[in-house]
Design a protein that fits this description.
By secondary structure, this protein is α/β, with parallel strands linked by helices.
């Protein structure tokens, strides 16, 4: 059986590694640019964040409830890949142990406080919290971090002995006989494969649009442009800056909270985020400005201003309803993309589902529950009722602007309500209220321009 993995980010690489580990295969090929230009996997922090991603908005989503209930699947899957129990046994991937979430007095607003309360109660309900903490701090002892670049490099090294690595992105795919022909360009001959896993992140929609697969998902994949800072020393080390705990705020409007994460030889400060239907190569000035202000005002980084910084930008794949597209389309095509802020966190576990499909094995019941929600053939998933979606949309917009030092006037509020009502007056969002963080871009895609 000839298998191709289209996409060499975290989902594609972990799927390939799981499959190579568990199968006797005749051919396994992975396609993707080795530079991983604006790859979400390389731009990630990387926090293994399940509970800490819960906020006042996301808590309404059934998929979030599934992830919270099954958080141990993600953490144990990481342990099964690296260290003594893993197929890459020579390396411990963790750079920080545990996550400390603090309510910052200098920036707290009602949405942030509400998110903090939801997060704390959720962590307590699933026993993922250290009970001995002050009222303004939640400590999650199981949510570690890794250096995403090291993980990618080790997976590349492992797969070099188990697969064919093609240093080129796929341009399009065509159905052929009982499988598919894969093209990297019109000038080069295609290569035939019996089965394909399509995991190309934000670029998956472009591949599907240029291909003849006999199938087009009803839900589009967008570009969640995430920007962050990396603090490093010209001397190669960071005196007085190293931390073995992730520090972060609760999720804020339009972002995943301000956070500080240890990398192998630097510190990562993130993150800002905005969702767009077109790729944006560079971070916005206001985003970097808010991160720099946050470093000096809210995070325990000592004399970090003495050190150097660089900016990081990556395309975080986000679907139109913030629910991933993952599952089989046929006996020989499997899609997995659009996992937003936690694709890397869940990659080792989700790879076991894709590997089961490649090996023709039945899915465990808990995986079936996930695949039912992420089915590639589904319609848009409703976020909540209209009233709740509008309320959280306005809060999200208000505090996104507040974070960037922008005013929020009564006329802004009226304009946003009009935009929300336009989007939901006709078409697919009439019966499927939009996720609050995606109202703006969905309005553009639906023809209602700001």
């Amino acid at each position: 059986m000839k298998v191709a993995i289209v996409g060499n980010g975290s989902l594609g690489l972990f799927t390939a590694a799981r499959f190579a580990q568990s199968s006797n295969i005749s051919s396994l090929t992975i396609y993707g640019d080795s530079n991983r230009y604006h790859s979400a996997s390389c731009a990630a922090g990387l926090m293994l964040n399940i509970i800490s991603e819960v906020d006042a908005i996301s808590c309404h989503m059934p998929l979030v409830n599934w992830k919270v209930s099954n958080w141990r699947l993600a953490t144990s899957a990481w342990d099964s890949c690296f260290g003594e129990k893993g197929f890459i046994s020579s390396w411990n991937p963790y750079t920080s142990y545990g996550t400390k979430i603090q309510l910052s007095p200098s920036s707290t607003n009602s949405l942030e406080r509400l998110s903090f309360e939801v997060l704390a109660s959720t962590a307590e309900a699933v026993q993922a919290i250290d009970q001995n903490h002050p009222d303004d701090i939640v400590y999650l002892p199981y949510e570690h971090s890794v250096d995403s670049r090291c993980v990618i490099a080790l997976l590349d090294q492992y797969l070099a002995d188990h697969a064919i690595l093609i240093n080129a992105p796929v341009s399009h795919i065509q159905s052929y006989r009982s499988g598919y022909n894969v093209y990297v360009s019109d000038s080069e001959p295609p290569v035939y494969y019996d089965k394909i896993v399509l995991a190309a992140g934000s670029f998956t929609d472009n591949i599907i649009a240029n291909s003849s697969l006999g199938f087009v998902p009803k839900v589009k994949c967008l570009y969640g442009v995430g920007s962050a800072l990396e603090i490093f020393s010209e001397y190669g080390y960071l005196p007085n800056l190293s931390t073995k705990t992730i520090f972060r705020t609760p999720n804020r409007g339009g972002t995943c909270g301000l956070h500080l994460v240890q990398r192998s030889n630097s510190l990562y400060v993130g993150a800002s985020s905005f969702v767009t239907h077109e790729p944006s190569k560079f971070p916005r000035f206001s985003s970097i400005q808010s991160l720099i202000n946050g470093v000096s005002d809210e995070l325990p980084v000592g004399d970090c201003l003495r050190h150097s910084i660089t900016t990081i930008t990556g395309y975080r794949p986000v679907t139109q309803d913030a629910v991933p597209v993952m599952g089989p389309v046929s006996d020989n095509l499997f899609l997995m993309y659009g996992h937003k802020r936690d694709g890397f966190t869940w990659a080792p576990y989700l790879a076991t589902i894709a590997s089961d499909w490649l090996n023709g094995r039945e899915y465990p019941e808990v995986a079936c529950q996930y695949l039912q929600m992420t089915n590639p053939t589904r319609d848009l998933t409703p976020f909540a009722d209209h009233k709740t979606s509008l309320k959280l949309y306005l809060l999200n917009e208000q505090f996104s602007r507040h974070q960037h030092g922008e005013a929020f006037s009564d006329s802004d509020r009226s304009m946003l309500i009009k935009r929300f009502n336009q989007l939901h007056s006709d078409g697919p969002y009439t019966l499927s209220p939009s996720h609050p963080e995606l109202v703006n871009v969905n309005s553009v895609l639906s023809g209602f321009y700001p």
